Amino acid sequence: MSLYDIKVNTIRGEAQDLSSWKGDVLLIVNTATKCGFAPQFKGLQKLYEEYKDQGFAVLGFPSNQFAGQEPGAEEEIAQTCELNHGVTFPLFAKIDVNGANAHPLFQHLAKEAPGLLGSKSIKWNFTKFLVDRDGRVLKRFAPTDKPEQIEPHIKQLLQQSAAKR
Predict the structure, then answer these.
(1) Position 165 in a domain
(2) How many Cβ atoms from other residues are within 10 Å of residue 121's Cβ?
(3) Which stretches of the chain score pLDDT less than 50?
(4) Phi/psi at 146 (nearest 5 deg)?
(5) Number of folded domains that form the chain
(6) Most exposed: 30, 57, 107, 108, by fewest CB within 10 Å?
(7) Secondary structure, 3-state, the chain
């Protein structure tokens, strides 16, 4: 199965598949507004603003699986992200990232880019996955990896793909 075959729901409840981002470099993140890592929203937004015109997107997937740090409904999540963190990158409906009910997207991401010692499970909020323009999951970043630490990887992917054109 290709990443682009996976169906998701936007934070507003609209069905969408990831083919909308075919050809873009993606940073896919499981988020939580009440997490200690929530200040990363600002860094993720900064990356999105800096590189969106070059074919880059951040895709945020709220999850309440870690210490109940995303208890609100989608409308509340969207409002908090927008008002408190200035988020304009795409947000999606709240999902599970681990376990029997894990969303197919995170099953795919975890399989393609295992964590430490080959672990498939997502360890915490703000685990990030970098995807190239061909839909290949290249790298998993830990929750402690700040967006600015990921920026060189994004720039490199964007420059490589620009050189091919």
Answers:
(1) no
(2) 13
(3) none
(4) -75, 150
(5) 1
(6) 107
(7) CCHHHCEEEECCCCEEEHHHHCCCEEEEEEECCCCCCCCHHHHHHHHHHHHHHHCEEEEEEECCCCCCCCCCCHHHHHHHHHHHHCCCCCEECCCECCCCCECHHHHHHHHHCCCHHHCCCCCCCCCEEEECCCCCEEEEECCCCCHHHHHHHHHHHHHHHHHHC
pTM over 0.90: yes
Catalytic residue among 35, 78, 110, 122: 35
Note the pLDDT of residue 118. 74
b/e sequence 12-47, b meaning 16+ C-beta within 10 Å: eeeeeebeebeebbbbbbbbbbebebbebbebbbeb
Rounded Cα distance, 55 and 124, in Å: 28
Query: Which tokens belong to 18?
Result: 């990831």
Instruction: Tell me if 138 is assigned to some domain.
Output: yes
35 assigned to active site: yes
